[in-house]
Task: inverse folding
């Protein structure tokens, strides 16, 4: 269009001016894209057609074409390599190079310097094709990504491809036009520009570049220095330039989330950080002062450009200030003015240290306007758009305006999309404009998405009709960060901030009709003026100040403003957090509402951090400014706010004791304002619909009161009763802390002794309701007395208005405790410490690692401790209170080892109980018990229920096993059925089976003597029967042979009774005492020293005699009878023949080789009784022993009885014992700490076991009692060829030879 035609003689400079001015008008009119480019292209076409015939035209042949295809003069039709080798001949003023369609290969290396010419045009003579930016269009696969950006660029079919290091330098030219060319793989260094580029422009006036694509260049695609006049670069693309990445680079991918899609940007890092001079990119234009430039006002238009995939290799480890690789403008001149208009340009996926997509540095002699421009997916250290205000010597105003543009999905180390740096040395005015929907969606690593750092006092940032939405990583300080100086201003109008945190420091902020949604504001030494309708909603932070966080800042609500804080959340101050140097100013008719804000701790709506005490008068956090009118209306409205701890509406602020500036008050309010800030606060505020009304307005604690946990929100009007405590014991105090206006608040409380008689410094935190708190009492070391009185005083770390006191008496350490001079508290005495116990003075409990211990006072003074306490008398527990030692005892027992009865109570026979319902008249029970002895003998005679027929043997053994370990198997109180069955077990052990006392104050000694008495009475009956049989033939004939089996049965029962009673006498325990000594005591009455107490000595001697003269001989006799019978012919053993009938009764039911069986079972009884007495703390061992013995009998297959029915009954009861023992073990002992955790499982297993044995016993009783039944059974036995009804019994004649006789069973 800059060629001349004869009919239209226009200078080229004039044409360029007309076209540039026309573009400016179109831009300012903001016409739509279609109309704009239609008019532009029409104008260009007209200019081209009218000027085509004037000037010199050269045709450039594509690679491989001959000059025969030239449309013009053959002397001006060559390949590009020919022209560059003859630059001086062909590149002259008023020349047009017409590149024919095709690929022009430039294989001549070097920089082609085209200097000092005017009116030069390079035009590709072809149509263009539409291409998409993709990996296929970029050399070396520079970037891979997976989203469709819908960005296209125009690539001419006429292309210039460099095969070597080639490039063009246009210098000192006027009216330069480059159109419809694609330049690929070019780039060479220029000494004049000091950089590499495909096209170098130096001092070019009136540039027109249209439809040009430059890609894959080495260095910059386009490098310009002082492109002045009215120049334009339009409808061009710069893709993937700066191909230094061929070597010395490593690459990695950065994951960026953009509009809910994941984009992978591959970035290149130079491996040698010492060399960061590999500058390059798509476009770099620099303006600098030059004596050759005389034009004062210059304008550069950049329109409809695509800038993509540029890289400089410096990210992120290079510290050099390399500009971005999309578009870099360095406007450093001071002598002339430059206006840069960037219109409808897309810069994306570029990489650079500063401003990956756009880099601007400008003096006050410049204005930069971006309209309808996109910066997207830039990867940099400092912003995808970087602007630096160069300090200027003049005081003009320079401006950066970003209008109707989009900044999306950029990634940076410090600032994502926009970084503006205005140093203090820049004394001129700097105005930053963000107009009409600047949209930001960034992945900022470390700081903000928009960052303005201004040390200049004359900086204004205008945000008008913008939309901010930042969805990526939360920054450290704020997504929109503005660091200013004293006069720095941020003006926000009609804008929308979403997920955009605003951080301002030393900035005057003006907000009008804007919304902050999920956006939080932080103001430091700043002021925010709110005009019109302003909404702060849904902001959330785990820090302080949900919507606004103020430090030494002010909120100014202007006239008729409507400010709302809705659904914000923070830890402190759900809507607003302000320190004590911040203030809210209300103008007339201003209105501020707080609705449904939440604080996780304090201040649901507002939190004011008080730096003063409540006894002083600080300035109120709310003040009036300007004229308030004749009436004061509501300025603050609160509804539905909530704080978890305190102050759902307000925390802090000291509203009842602060100072208001009343200079602007109407006369009728002046007195109230001056003397009652609290009333003014009430007039200003309206509070509705809050659930936690006990703490709407509160503060740090100002008052402390006693309370009751049953009424947790009410203070008591009286002090608690005096307390009596031990050193180290905790006093329980119920307290409430109240803040301003009696709002309940948690507070830190400390305590000390009023009279300083002891050292106490304790801290605790009260709750937001009445709770019990424990305070440790400790006397002063070295001055501890046995008893002293003092008072506890309660105060707070804040300035409390009251103190609470409680009278206490400190007592000497109780029994079992002694003063610990280190902890200044009562602790375990030396004896207990040796036992590995813990002592808690608070509840005076002594805790053992294992149970079954007894600890208590002893008659000699101090305390004693015994490891094993009888289960019949003791409550087994791991904790003991020595103030109440009898709590260790059960069944009303007391005393040492629980061996005595409480008070005047008496022990009972048949159980371990003590009872007060006893008198000497119970001695009359001797009569029925005497009758019962005779009845027992008659019963055995009548039913023939004796050891001779073998039917009762196993039942006696079974009952002995159960009775000897009654604490494991059953308790009569388990269930009603067990109470009946326990009588059955007791009778088989010659016990009464009922609970009764005999005489008043009966104790353990008397109880044991009575056990002997009944046994001896049975023995007397046996002797009477024998004597009666000798003197009366009739009695002898009546009893016949049954008298001997009955006597044997009674002796076996008597043996079991004596064995258990003697063992009671012989058992003892060792008691360690606090005086360092120890003594042996009788297990069943710890007050009796073992073999020292005379009564115990008498009992011991009697038991020893019974053992020596009955238990041991009788056991050996029945165990060794088979061997002794063989020696009976010797004179020394002739006495065996005299007791042979008695021995025969025990051996009668057994086979000959098992005649020792009864004696073996007696040995088992002795072992079981000893184990039960001395291993009671290991019940698992006892049960294991029972299971092993009885299982061995069952599984050994011994058929010891002659009668198979009796063998079957015995096997049944053995299995019965095994099952019951295993059930007790696994249901009660497995996994439990016996005996403290031991509980019989409702005696279910023992109830079933004893019930089965009782049924068997009853059936055998019927068998022996009813003869017809016996006859029928014998017939059935004969039917089954059981011919053992006549059992031969071994006897011996006078010569000692063995012979057979009929058994006593048949007699």
Result:
């Amino acid at each position: 269009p800059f060629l001349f035609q004869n009919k239209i003689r226009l200078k080229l400079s004039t044409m360029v001016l007309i076209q540039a001015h026309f573009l400016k008008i179109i831009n300012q009119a903001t016409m739509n894209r279609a109309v704009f480019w239609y008019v532009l292209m029409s104008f260009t076409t007209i200019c081209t057609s009218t000027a085509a015939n004037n000037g010199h035209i050269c045709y450039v042949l594509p690679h491989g074409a001959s000059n025969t295809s030239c449309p013009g003069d053959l002397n001006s039709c060559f390949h590009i390599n020919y022209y560059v080798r003859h630059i001086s001949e062909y590149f002259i003023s008023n020349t047009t190079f017409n590149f024919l369609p095709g690929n022009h290969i430039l294989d001549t290396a070097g920089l082609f310097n085209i200097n000092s010419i005017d009116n030069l045009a390079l035009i590709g003579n072809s149509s263009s094709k539409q291409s998409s930016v993709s990996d296929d269009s970029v050399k070396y696969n520079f970037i891979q990504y997976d989203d469709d950006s819908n960005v296209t660029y125009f690539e001419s079919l006429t292309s210039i491809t460099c095969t070597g290091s080639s490039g063009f330098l246009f210098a000192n030219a006027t009216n330069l036009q480059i159109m419809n060319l694609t330049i690929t793989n070019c780039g060479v260094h220029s000494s004049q520009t000091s950089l590499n580029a495909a096209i170098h422009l130096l001092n070019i006036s009136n540039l027109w570049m249209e439809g040009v694509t430059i890609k894959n260049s080495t260095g910059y695609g386009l490098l310009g220095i002082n492109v002045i006049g009215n120049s334009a670069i339009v409808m061009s693309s710069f893709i993937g330039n700066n191909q230094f990445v061929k070597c010395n680079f490593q690459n990695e991918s950065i994951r960026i989330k953009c509009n809910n899609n994941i984009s992978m940007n591959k970035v290149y890092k130079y491996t040698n950080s010492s060399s960061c001079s590999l500058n390059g990119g798509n476009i770099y234009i620099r303006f600098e002062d030059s004596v050759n430039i005389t034009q004062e006002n210059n304008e550069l238009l950049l329109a409809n450009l695509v800038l993509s995939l540029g890289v400089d290799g410096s990210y992120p480890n290079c510290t050099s200030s390399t500009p971005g690789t999309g578009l870099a403008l360095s406007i450093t001149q001071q002598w002339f003015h430059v206006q840069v208009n960037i219109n409808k340009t897309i810069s994306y996926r570029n990489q650079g240290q500063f401003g990956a997509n756009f880099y601007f540095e400008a003096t006050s002699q410049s204005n930069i306007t971006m309209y309808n421009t996109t910066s997207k997916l830039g990867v940099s250290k400092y912003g995808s758009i970087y602007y630096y205000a160069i300090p200027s010597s003049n005081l003009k105003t320079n401006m950066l305006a970003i209008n109707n543009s989009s900044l999306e999905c950029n990634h940076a180390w410090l600032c994502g999309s926009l970084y503006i740096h205005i140093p203090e040395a820049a004394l001129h005015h700097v105005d930053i404009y963000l107009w009409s929907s600047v949209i930001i969606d960034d992945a900022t690593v470390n700081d903000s998405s928009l960052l303005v750092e201004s040390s200049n006092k004359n900086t204004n940032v205008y945000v008008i009709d913008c939309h901010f939405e930042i969805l990526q990583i939360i920054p450290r300080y704020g997504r929109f960060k503005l660091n200013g100086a004293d006069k720095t201003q941020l003006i926000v109008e009609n804008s929308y901030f979403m997920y955009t945190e605003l951080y301002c420091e030393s900035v005057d902020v003006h907000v009008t009709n804007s919304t902050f949604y999920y956006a939080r504001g932080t103001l430091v030494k700043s002021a925010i003026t709110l005009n019109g309708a302003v909404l702060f909603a849904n902001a959330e932070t785990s820090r302080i100040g949900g919507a606004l966080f103020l430090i030494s800042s002010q909120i100014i609500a202007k006239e008729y403003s409507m400010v709302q804080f809705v659904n914000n959340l923070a830890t402190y101050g759900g809507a607003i957090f302000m320190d004590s140097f911040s203030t809210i100013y209300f103008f007339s008719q201003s209105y501020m509402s707080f609705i449904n804000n939440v604080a996780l701790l304090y201040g649901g709506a507002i939190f004011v951090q008080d730096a003063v005490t409540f006894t002083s008068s600080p300035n109120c956090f709310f003040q009036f400014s300007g004229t308030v009118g004749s009436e004061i209306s509501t300025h603050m409205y609160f509804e539905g706010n909530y704080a978890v701890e305190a102050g759902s509406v307000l925390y802090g602020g000291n509203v009842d004791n602060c100072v208001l500036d009343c200079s602007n008050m109407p006369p009728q309010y002046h007195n109230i304002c001056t003397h009652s800030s609290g009333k003014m606060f009430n007039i200003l505020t309206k509070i509705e619909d809050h659930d936690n009304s006990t703490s709407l307005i509160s503060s740090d604690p100002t008052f402390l009161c006693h309370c009751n946990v049953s009424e947790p929100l009410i203070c008591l009007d009286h002090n608690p009763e005096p307390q009596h405590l031990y050193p180290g014991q905790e006093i329980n105090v119920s307290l409430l802390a109240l803040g301003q206006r009696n709002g309940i608040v948690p507070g830190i409380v400390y305590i000390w002794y009023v009279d300083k008689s002891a050292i106490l410094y304790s801290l605790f935190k009260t709750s937001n309701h009445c709770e019990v708190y424990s305070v440790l009492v400790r006397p002063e070391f070295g001055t501890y007395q046995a008893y002293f009185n003092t008072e506890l005083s309660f105060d707070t770390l804040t300035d409390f208005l009251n103190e609470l006191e409680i009278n206490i008496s400190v007592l000497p350490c109780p029994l079992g405790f002694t003063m610990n001079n280190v902890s200044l508290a009562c602790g375990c005495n030396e004896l207990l410490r040796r036992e590995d116990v813990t002592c808690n003075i608070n509840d005076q409990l002594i805790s053992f690692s294992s149970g079954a211990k007894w600890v208590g006072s002893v008659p000699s003074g101090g305390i004693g401790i015994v490891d094993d306490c009888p289960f019949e008398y003791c409550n087994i527990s791991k904790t003991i209170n020595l103030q109440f030692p009898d709590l260790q005892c059960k069944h009303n027992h007391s005393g040492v080892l629980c061996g005595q009865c409480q008070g005047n109570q008496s022990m009972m026979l048949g159980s371990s109980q003590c009872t007060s319902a006893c008198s000497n008249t119970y001695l009359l029970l001797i009569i029925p018990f005497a009758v019962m002895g005779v009845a027992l003998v008659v019963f055995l005679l009548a039913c023939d229920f004796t050891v001779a027929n073998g039917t009762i043997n196993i039942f006696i053994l079974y009952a002995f096993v159960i009775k000897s370990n009654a604490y494991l198997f059953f308790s009569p109180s388990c269930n009603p059925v067990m109470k009946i069955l326990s009588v059955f077990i007791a009778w088989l052990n010659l016990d009464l089976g009922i609970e009764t006392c005999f005489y008043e104050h009966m104790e353990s000694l008397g109880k044991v003597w009575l056990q002997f008495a009944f046994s001896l009475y049975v023995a007397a009956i046996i002797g009477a029967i024998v004597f009666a049989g000798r003197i009366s033939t009739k009695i002898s004939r009546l009893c016949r042979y049954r008298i001997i089996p009955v006597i044997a049965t009674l002796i076996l029962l008597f043996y079991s009774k004596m064995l258990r009673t003697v063992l009671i006498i012989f058992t003892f325990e060792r008691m360690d005492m606090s005086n360092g000594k120890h003594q042996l005591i009788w297990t069943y009455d710890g007050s009796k020293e073992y073999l020292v107490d005379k009564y115990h000595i008498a009992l011991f001697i009697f038991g020893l005699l019974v053992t020596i003269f009955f238990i041991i001989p009788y056991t050996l006799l029945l165990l060794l009878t088979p061997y002794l019978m063989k020696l009976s012919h010797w004179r020394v053993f002739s006495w065996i023949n005299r007791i042979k009938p008695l021995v025969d009764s025990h051996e009668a039911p057994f086979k000959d080789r098992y005649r020792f069986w009864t004696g073996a079972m007696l040995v088992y009884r002795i072992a079981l009784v000893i184990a039960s007495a001395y291993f009671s703390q290991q019940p698992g061992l006892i049960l294991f022993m029972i299971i092993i013995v009885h299982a061995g009998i069952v599984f050994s297959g011994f058929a010891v009885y002659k009668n198979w029915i009796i063998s079957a009954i015995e096997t049944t009861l053995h299995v019965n014992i095994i099952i019951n023992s295993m059930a007790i073990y696994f249901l009660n002992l497995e996994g439990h700490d016996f005996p403290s955790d031991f509980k019989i499982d409702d005696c279910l297993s023992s109830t079933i076991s004893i019930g089965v044995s009782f049924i068997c016993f009853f059936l055998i009783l019927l068998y022996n009692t009813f003869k017809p039944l016996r006859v029928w059974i014998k017939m059935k036995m004969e039917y089954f060829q059981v011919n053992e009804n006549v059992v031969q019994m071994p006897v011996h004649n006078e010569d000692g030879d063995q012979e057979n006789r009929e058994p006593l069973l048949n007699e």
About this structure: The first helix runs from residue 12 to 29. The two ends are 152 Å apart (CA to CA). The chain has 22 helices and 87 strands.
